[in-house]
Amino acid sequence: MLQAGGSLLVLALMLPVIGILLIMSLDARHTGKIALALMPAGLAVALAIAARVWTTQAGLEYFIGGWAPPLGVALRADGISAVMLVTTSVVIGAAGLFARAEFRQPDNQPEARAPLMFWLLLLGIWAGLNAVFLGGDLFNLYVALEMLTFAAVPLVCLSGKAETLAAALRYLLFALLGSALYLLGAVLLFGAYGTLDIALLAARIAAQANMASPVWPLALWVALALMTVGLLAKTALFPLHLWLPPAHSGAPAAASAVLSALVVKASFFLIVRLWFGMLPGLTPWLGAQLLAALGAAAILFGSVLALRQARLKLLVAYSTVAQIGYLFFVFPLAANPAASTASAALAWTGGWMQLVSHALAKAAMFMAAGLIAETLGHDRIAGLGGVARVVPITVIAFALAGASLMGLPPSGGFVAKLLLLSAAVSQGLWFWAVVMLLGGLLAGGYLFRVLSPALGPLPAGWTPAARIPRDRQAVALVLALGAVLLGFAPLKSYDLLQFGRPAIAGAVTR
Amino acid sequence: MGEFLTGSACFVLAMVALGLVRILRGPADADRIMAPQLLGTGGIAVLLLLAAATGAPAVVDVALSLALLAAFASVAFVLAKGSPAPGKADEP
Amino acid sequence: MTAEQLYGLCGAGLVGLGLFGLITAELPLRRIVAFNLLGGGAFVVFGVIARRGAAAGLGGDPVPQALIITGVVVGFAATALAVTLVRRLHEETGTTKFDQDELPPETVKLSDATLSGGNP
Amino acid sequence: MSAALILDACLVLLVLAVAVWTIAARETFPAIAGFVSYGLLLAIVWVRLSSVDVALTEAAIGGGATGVLLLGAAARLTDRAGRRPAGIGLRIMAGALCLAITAALAFVILTLPDPAPTLAPQAVAGLPATGVGNPITAVLVAYRGIDTLLEKIVLLLAVIGVWCLTPDDSWGALPAPWGTARQDDAIVLLARLLAPVGVVVGVYIVWVGADDPGGAFQGGTILAAMWLLVMMAGLIAPLPATSRRLRRVLVAGPALFLAVAFAGFAMSGDFLSYPPAYAKWLIKLIEAALTLSIAAMVGVLVIGPAVRKR
Amino acid sequence: MSVFWSRAGCFLGLWIILDGLDVGGFVLGCATALTASRVSLRLLPGQGWRPRPIALALFGLRFLRQSVIAGADIAWRALSPGMPLRPGFVLYPTRLPEGHPRSVFRMLASLLPGSLPAGPEAQGRVPVHLLDTARPALAELADEEARFSHIFGVSQADTRASHG
Amino acid sequence: MSLLRDLFTVLMVSAGGFCFLAGTAGLLRFPDALTRLHALTKADNLGLGLIVLGLIAQAPGPLGALKLVAVWLLAQLAGATATQVLARAVRAEGRDSP
User: CB-based contacts of A367: which residues, under 8 Å, 6+ apart?
Assistant: First the structure.
């Protein structure tokens, strides 16, 4: 059985794994080189997958070992997977470049812990993310989620400081709770439908729904509820966000960037897979509203808390709590049975645009915050005075990323929020529109708190705690520019997001 | 015969359960760590009985693994107890 | 009541107990144990589903059985990581308790966080 | 009512009682002693559910690795719960929530479709192509080999995570998980006598796994337990995280698995597919390599990282 | 070298007990037995052990008998209404050389009726916990020890460690 | 012959069960940790031994029977080690002194 493009999917999944195995078995001096060499290769594979999805206008699918589901496991890539794969390799690559100097093995000395661990864990996160974006099987996705957890938690406490250990422990406990609930849901689905393959599940659920006397499939809803709650804990949607700020603010800057930009999105991606991919046309209306309500609460609560933070990294982390909220407007807006197809498509595109632009912007922002903290030797917002004069590129990156988060035109964040907003308005869901606008204002508030002193005068007699090389600042700037330039992407390119939607099953079921 | 063996397994399990109640209540940690020991022996007996009752020889392998690892909990406990204050567990 | 139903209820009970412990326990080590109970419950439920799928001369559906093994392994790895984290935390701070309340320290009052920024 | 059903009922009650004890015990240590017992009881539950493979896993993990891990931690961490238990309001709310979830689960389980959907016939039908006789091994290494491969990466990441928790100044130092107290000669004797026997049993469990219950994970865990026992007895030293040999053993299994998986592209057209003529031997080779890696992984996970130098 | 081969033979026997006689398995069994024998020899070098086969078998039978008596003894004490217990400690002066012989003997002693070596010895005296201090436990232990040292060919007077 | 064999099994397994009963009675009634330890290991190991003996009669072949014996021997070894080790732990906790 020849499955076109399948080898690309396998390669995307296995490149980081190969990296981990190589680093573990070779001398530590090669660590950074191996990881950095794999990153362009990974990007090329991701782009090739995206190109394939674009040209075929449908999903790619690969049955591993030639064993078709339900017995075997399928890998699938549709438009959103392709976009996520590309985003992931860009952000991971940027994090790698950013961290290259910081996590270099010392020459002519015995192997050091942090550099070795950092690269291994970064590759672990990458492998986990790719596995999540490509997985077509609920249990395979469970393993993927665990890969992500096991790589992300140690990154949080890479420095070994007591407070980061506590943050990592809290993160791990939340994540384990999430995985356990997710697994339980998957188990129930297997019991009820005899398969773990998302496409097959979708077909069987749809068949059940079409039957003349539909039995209320309680198993389905219990499973969906358990899995969604579990994944929400991993996404840190309010009120399950408690673990996120200490974890993301305690990690090294490059790791925070990856965690905030990508890792929390992986579980969101899975929620979308479940709600849209597994239940095409059956999305529970009340549940979707509830998710959006939590999202709205996250926006308001996270923004207000961001406004109250005294430390820059925590502010950025709370901003992630808030920005995640926007993603959840996709559920009522794209799955509204009353909405027109065009309006639903707008919301869908807007949601993913928000995800991608936030990924780029937040990665840039965490890197910038890390550089600022390095320069100053601390990250107290009260002590930011004049930092723009020392590291102008960094502050510009921070400001550009902030503009995208606020939704200022012409950034990617602007387009995302505009799309979501217009979908909300066209569907008459005014309330969500108001929350989005309010969130933008609050974001402006907390960013202003940072930028206003940063652009002010330097205190007299100030000396930098560390000199920041230009290339590290440039990485943050490029990411921030990317977030802004996303706003200029030709409208046609948004179609990529639509391939395979909403019946992800529809595109690939044979 | 199968019925008798299953019944015996049930009886042994009930005995183990009763013993477990007593042990887990302590008072000392050393009492409590007898629980895995009790379950080790009792569990092996139950498994062997079940293996014979259901004619599943592979179950004997489970009993074998349990027997191989039966002392582990006690050993781990004693070592861990002993380690914060070296020699503490060894003084008479 | 069949044996499968009995064990199914057992699994459901274990899940509830584990979840309760995971939410309410004060010490992280107890939460880790509760997580293991919860996982065990989920696996028992899965095992019941496997048992119900007995066919083709097998005592149960081998696919869920194999997945349970994978799940047990992953659960063990999680336990090991969590226990190590707890021990390291204890080594650093002398306690394993971490702040259960939500706000990290060092927040400023909203009224102080004026839009003019916090310039000293 | 048959004896079997009475046995099942006893077992279920006992498991639930031990679980309640584990959650409700005030002190940590009794809870953990209860939990280790729970693991052993689950092994019997798995036998009753006709999942002997899982029972073996549970016996090896619950009886050996997890017990050592948790008991070690519990005996060392002297933390006690505060006088103030979690707020009564929280407990009631959590209790209600958990009760609701249990009730929903119970209802779902009792109303699962009848006849149950099953993949058993398909799994059996695929066996000839894999050359193994134990369908569970076929699922783990062939049908859903990708899960097993990624699971090994999960284990590897857990090892990396555990190593990552080494304090910087102790990187490369030997972990000393059981202190340096004078060894108890009973333990030493046990290690000397049991370890070689355990090697035979471990290899046997892997070997029979091809056709009967058993397999790489179960056997590997038993080997790991023996390694741990010998270290507990102080007969050999643990290996440091910087040991190249250890790292190669850790990587060997997953690497070979991956190599065979990629070779599948060339040999039979698909990633992770086996050419039918060699399938059986390739699978056994992979299992053998995985066993070594698993033993090393489980061992390292239990030993933990080197601790801070004083 | 003969120690190595005799142990390998034992482990091969164990393999056959476990796996049965199957050709493929037998080859692996041989390899495993050799590995196990190497492990065993490394952990427990062969010097100082000259067990006599027939005596060993007799000792095994005696050991079986003792453990039956031990179990019955406990059962009697536990189930009789008066619960005849007079628990206490004695210090048993062992004459076995330090090291394995003593460890093995303590292990066997822990299976004897009513006695349980508890705690490390001091100056060659092993604290033994007894269920019934009225029994002539010291004499019984000494008797067992004499048999033990005869069978395993360790001299009781020898105070030097049989191996380090 | 089969009847005789079954009778032997019933007898031995019942005796084994009785030993477990006695062991549990000891656990419940004995006054301190060390005496309970006696009850735990000796009675239960004898119980296991008797059950093994009873099941040997039902074993599929000589190898199966030997495997049962191997299980029992391993359990004995574990029991003997655990008793000593636990006895020390009990004394280390200082509840019973010589």
Answer: A94, A95, A98, A253, A254, A257, A397, A472, A475, A476, A479
Q: Return the closest-CA partner of residue C97 out of A156, D80, A154.
A: D80
Q: Which two tokens stand for residue A279?
A: 């239940």
Tens of pLDDT, residues A372-404? 999 888 889 888 888 888 889 999 999 999 999
pLDDT score, position D174: 86
- What distance in Å separates the CA atoms of residue D170 and residue D240, rounded to the nearest whole number? 10
pLDDT in tens, C19-60: 999 998 888 999 999 999 999 999 999 999 999 988 888 888
Statement: residue A159 has pLDDT above 80: yes
Parallel, antiparallel, or unpaired for β A60-63 and A74-77?
antiparallel
Q: Which range, C103-107, D11-15, E112-116, is most confident?
A: D11-15
- Sheet with E88-93: list strands edge to edge: E88-93, E125-130, E115-117
pLDDT of res. A212: 53
For residue A332, pLDDT over 70 is answered with yes
Contact A169 C119 (CB under 8 A): no
Backbone angles phi, psi at C9, to 5 degrees: -65, -40
Q: What is the pLDDT of residue F89?
A: 80
Whole-angstrom distance, CA of residue D259 vs CA of residue D264: 9
Distance of alpha carbon A407 from alpha carbon A388, whole angstroms = 22
Tracing tokens 């992979």 back to the chain, one arrives at D286
What the block records as the tokens of D258 is: 């991956």
- In sequence order, what E strands does chain E have? 88-93, 115-117, 125-130
Q: Do C20 and D23 touch (CB under 8 A)?
A: yes
The string of pLDDT tens digits covering residues E136-158 is 878 888 888 888 887 776 666 54
Whether D218 sits inside 8 A of B33 (CB atoms) is no
The domain spans of chain E are 2-43, 53-152
Q: Tens digits of per-residue pLDDT, A256-306? A: 999 999 999 999 999 999 998 888 777 788 888 999 999 999 999 999 999
What average pLDDT score do residues A343-353 get? 88
Nearest-CA distance B74 → chain E (Å): 14
Could you give the CA distance from residue A61 to residue A237 in angstroms, rounded to a whole number? 31
| pLDDT at site E100 | 76
In total, the C-beta contacts within 8 angstroms joining chain A to chain D are 163
Note whether A78 and A280 are within 8 A (CB).
no
Instruction: Say whether F81 and D189 touch across the interface (CB within 8 A).
Output: yes
- pLDDT in the model for residue E20: 84
Residue of E11, E67, E129 for testing the chain F interface, max F β-carbons within 10 Å: E129
Scan for tokens 């660590």, then name that residue. Answer: A31
Q: Is A74 helix (H, G, I), strand (E, B) or coil?
A: strand
What ranges do the domains of chain F cover?
A: 2-92
Q: F-chain residues within 8 Å CB-CB of D190?
A: 77-78, 81
CATH of domain C3-93: 1.10.287.3510
pLDDT category of residue E159 using cuts at 50, 70 and 90: very low
Q: Which helix (H) or strand (E) holds E144?
A: helix E137-152
Distance CA A56, CA A499 (A): 9
Backbone angles phi, psi at E117, to 5 degrees: -60, 125
Q: Which residues of chain D have pLDDT under 70?
A: 1, 78-86, 179-183, 309-310
Residue E80 CA to residue E65 CA, distance in Å, equals 22
Neighbour count for residue F56 (Cβ, 10 Å): 21
The residues spanned by each domain of chain B are 2-83
Of residues A125 and F89, more confidence is placed in A125
Phi-psi region of E123 (alpha: psi -120 to 50; beta: other; left: phi over 0): left
Tell which residue, A496, A489, A501, has the closest CA to residue A55.
A496
Query: 3-class SS at D167?
Result: coil
Whether chain D has a CB inside 8 Å of the CB on F84: the answer is: yes
Residues 6 or more apart whose CB falls under 8 angstroms from that of C44 comprise C7, C8, C10, C11, C14, D42, D45, D49
